[in-house]
Request: fold
Amino acid sequence: MRVVEPAGFTKVSALGVEEQRVWVIADITSPPEQWQRLGDGYRVEAAFVLWQGQDVLQVPAGALFRHGEGWAVFVVEDDRAVRREVSIGHRSAEAAQVINGLTSGERVILHPSNRVDDGRG
Reply:
């Protein structure tokens, strides 16, 4: 991507749905044979990788909750919920990178309700 406009705009689709859009200028780096049939005004749906890593420990974002100044999850230990403070790195709407506080293979509680408490079975 070369340019992402700083402000978006609302457009009403053919079905009458309001959509938020932003203009983006991108350079296509794949061979021309793969895109030469594109013309002016074509719509492109794309996914952008903002960050990636190898061997990243992550948890679903729905398992995280605020605890004090940081983040925590509930881990299942001996059929009990145990609150565990975690340090997170990169985060998206779906998942978060865990820097420390958990090890691979530990079970976490997804979307813990207010009935889940530290030590409760």
Strands lie at 3-4, 9-12, 18-21, 24-25, 58-60, 65-67, 70-77, 80-91, 95-100.
